[in-house]
Structure formats: structure tokens, C-alpha cells
Amino acid sequence: MPALPWCAIAQEPGSGAAAVSELPEAPQAQFVLAAVDPQAPAGQSQTAAKPAPAGAAQGSSSSQTGAQQPDAKKLQYLKAKEQIKEEEHQRILGIVPNFNTTYRHDTVSLTPGQKMDLAIHSSVDPFTFAAGFMVAGYHEALDQNKGFGWGLEGYGKRSGAAYLDAVDGTMIGNGVLPIILHQDPRYFRLGYGTTRHRLFYAIASSYICKHDNTGKWEPNYSNVGGNIIAGAISNLYYPPNGAGIGQTFSNGFIVTTEGTIGGVFQEFWPDISRKFLHRDPTHGIDATTRAAYKAKKEAQQQQK
Predict the structure, then answer these.
(1) What whole-number distance in Å separates Cα of residue 224 and Cα of residue 258?
(2) What stretches of the chain adopt beta strand conformation (E)?
(3) Minimal CB count within 10 Å: which of 56, 173, 250, 253?
């Protein structure tokens, strides 16, 4: 299955242009800091200031560069913090958390602390607990994991295991590994283009991601690796008759597949919401993006 997204997004349907070129802009900070000459006397115009000696000018330039670098990082941190606040209010039907999806195309990279906070916020959300109970009921109905037993005790064990599966995958795949590998754990919704192109893009999101700061697309080692590691950890609390290498890769594959389906739903949820609920989760971002995309296409056609 990982091979499908790579081939699928290589070319946009109906066009010879590479689909990768249509992906959202790289999540990187873009700040312009005004350079002020600290040597200029108060009240005196910089244009009228006397030129400083070469040594002093070089020292001033170095001090300005050193001062600007922390400011740029602080501004990026604050901008990312505001964007995370928006994401943490995103819920599908007002219930299902949609924290790891961004509708913006001007996102900036997250700090290690922000990645971990986002993972923790998802792990302790009430819906995550509720999902564990629902998955446990599903497994018990299918007569799976017999080693847990039956009745209230067996259901409680299945619920705990299902919740731990979700937490392990989230904390490792969205927190620990993205920090170590410098990858962004969020889903960058496309929101424009043909339905087929957006579908393949969403499927690919489980297998490719953006590198921090550079915004370049690369294999999503964090997501796939995190799911496999979480599958290995699950051997510690699943019944011995179901544990082993098979359990590891089975759980990892299941969680990755669930994430792929979730990516497709995240891509098209705003469209569904606007059509049937008459609500726009993107708060106008889609309209602006699609207008710009349409204008770009028209300009390209006129140039031909």
C-alpha cells in the first residue's frame, strides 16, 4: 500500500504538471525584522549618522545578527502557539478531535515541546477514552483476544488495551519520533484541486510528511515507525497467545490503515460540513485558497 500514494501523487489528473508542485506551501517562518543602527544618537536620522569605523561597524553587524536570531525563533514559536490553539478547537461534529490537522498554508514548524503537548492533548481527550470502549466492544463481539476473558472483566481489559494502543501510537508517532527525526506530525490539508488528486494526496499523508523548517516532503518514518513500535509495546499487555512478531506488525498495519482512512476523512470533512451542515470548519480559508488556485490556473492557460 505505501507504493500507491507515491505513484498516485506523482501527477495531477488531467494535467502534465507534477502534483507535488501543487502541495501546500512549506511550513516555515517568514519574518522581516527592521535593522536599526544602535550607534546612531537619539533624535538623529540614520541617514545623517556618521559612518562608524570598520571595526565598530563589523561588531555592530554581528551584535544585530545575534539579536535578530532569537527574535525570529521567538516569533516563530508564538505564531506556532497561536496556530496550535486553533487546531485544538477543531472537532468533527463537535465531538471527534481533529487536533493534528491544519487548514492553513502558512503554518510554521513546531518546537519539540509543542509537538509533545499536542500529542498529550490528543491522548487525554475524552473521546480517546470513549473510542477505547467502543473498540473493546467491537473486539468482544468478534470473539477476539480470548485471553482477556469475558464479561465485565474481559471488557475492561480490552478497553484498557485499546486505549493504550491509541496512546502509544500517538505519543511515539506524533511526539517522540517527530522530535528525534525533525518531522511535522500534522496533516496538511490540501483543500483544492480535483477530487482524485486530493484523495491520493490524503492517502499519501500516512507515508510522507514535511521536514521541520525546510518543509520538504520525505518518507513519514515517524508515523509508520511509531505504529510498529506501538505494536511491539502492545505485546506487554495483550494475552500471551496473541503476542509476538505477528501481533507487532498486525497492530502496526491496522493503525496505519486507520490513519490513512482518517486522512481521507480529514481532507474532505470541511466539504461535507459545508454541504450538509452549512458550516465551514476552515472559516473562509478554503474559499481564499481555491480562488487563488483558480486564478493561478487561468493565468497559466493564458500564457499557453
Answers:
(1) 12
(2) 91-92, 96-97, 101-102, 187-188, 208-210, 217-219
(3) 56
CA gyration radius for the chain? Answer: 24
Question: 128 burial class (0-12, 13-18, 19+ CB within 10 angstroms)?
Answer: middle
Segments of 149-243 assigned E as strands: 187-188, 208-210, 217-219
Cell digits of residue 129 = 477514552
The number of beta carbons lying within 10 Å of the beta carbon of residue 197 is 20
Rounded CA separation 90/121 (Å): 12
> Which SS3 state, helix, strand or coil, does residue 30 take?
coil
Q: What is the pLDDT of residues 157-197, one digit of tens each?
A: 999 998 998 899 899 999 999 999 999 999 999 999 999 99
pLDDT digits (tens, 9 = 90+) for 272-299: 999 999 999 999 999 999 999 889 888 9
Nearest 10 degrees: CA dihedral of 143, 148, 152, 158?
-80
Contacts of 205 (CB under 8 A, 6+ apart): 5, 187, 188, 220, 260, 263
